[in-house]
Specification:
It contains twelve helices and twelve strands. The chain has 299 residues and is of the alpha/beta class.
């Protein structure tokens, strides 16, 4: 049996799909499961135990007709008996026509054999929404996803024995999701342990500033997603904006506090993990470092 799972991104959404991926694999232990995703997440997906193959060409520009045609042919040639569309976007719903209308379809596409028929689905948390979607498709067991594969060697970083992980970045197109850098610096100075700053290359100026202002160890732009998860697993706590790295830290089991403002709703997209929480303050820029410090118990 050939099964297709669609999850195109972004990082936080991809990470919050770990549970559904594990549930789909448990429900179809003998199936050949293909994930359709995008290049930033293909490495994670190929290392995970839930997929037999990973295709990373899932979001061609609609104006690139040859690329769209190649994807359509690939999806049709996959001969998928069932599709779990966890992206549930207008784009991914269109892929039902590429796959072929005979395939069973779990999602929101018109004519789906197993629709997520909850009119309030968009008000649900991502994790709860996907679980209910799978339940409506007949999946009832949701084992905790194994994450032992999400690790890496950290010997090159000379990490402190005990430290806090700070994640000051967020989407560059949504600056309102970022707690001010000076607040992060104030928090770093108040914590009773050294801080380590992580993020992508675009966050390098933030990491450099925190290193200069608060003595933090700056690892921005130097870690893979696997190393970021490994650092989070070893951290005493993590504090970050509503971003993919913050979700990854929570999924890795780190005690995580996410900071929300007006631009996102934690009841729908807050981090999930064994010890994950959030603060929402509007406007986010006026959230005091002392309140964050109290929320993490002083460190």
């Amino acid at each position: 049996m050939n099964i297709l799972v669609i999850k195109l991104g972004a990082l936080g959404d991809f990470v919050q799909g770990f549970g559904p991926y594990a549930a789909i694999r448990a429900a179809h232990p003998g199936a050949r499961i293909t994930l359709l995703t995008t290049p930033p997440f293909a490495g994670l997906a190929r290392a995970a135990p839930w997929f037999d193959q990973v295709w990373d060409d899932g979001r061609p520009d609609w104006t690139n007709i040859p690329a769209v045609w190649r994807l359509a042919r690939r999806l049709r040639a996959g001969r998928f008996a069932r599709v779990y569309d966890l992206q549930t976007s207008p784009r991914s719903s269109k892929y039902r026509f590429f796959v072929g209308l005979r395939a069973e379809w779990s999602g929101v596409a018109r004519g789906a054999s197993h629709p997520h028929a909850n009119p309030d689905r968009n008000a649900m948390h991502t994790v709860d929404r996907q679980r209910e979607q799978l339940q409506m498709a007949g999946i009832t067991a949701f084992p905790a996803p194994a994450l032992d594969w999400l690790d890496a060697d950290l010997s090159a970083f000379a990490l402190p024995e005990r430290f806090a992980l700070l994640l000051p970045g967020a989407s560059p197109t949504r600056p309102g999701k970022r707690w001010p850098l000076e607040r992060f610096a104030e928090l770093a100075r108040a914590l009773p342990m050294p801080s380590v700053v992580c993020g992508g290359k675009a966050e390098a100026p933030l990491g450099a500033a925190l290193a200069a202002e608060a003595g933090a160890l700056d690892l921005t732009g130097r870690t893979s997603l696997f190393q970021l998860a490994a650092i989070a697993r070893r951290a005493a706590l993590a504090v970050g904006n509503d971003s993919g790295p913050t979700h990854l830290a929570a999924a890795a089991g780190c005690r995580t506090l996410a900071l929300f403002g007006a631009e996102s709703e934690p009841s729908r997209c807050g981090p999930r993990g064994v010890d994950a929480g959030f603060i929402r303050h509007i406007p986010l820029a006026e959230l005091e470092a002392g309140e964050v410090l109290r929320a993490v118990g002083g460190g």
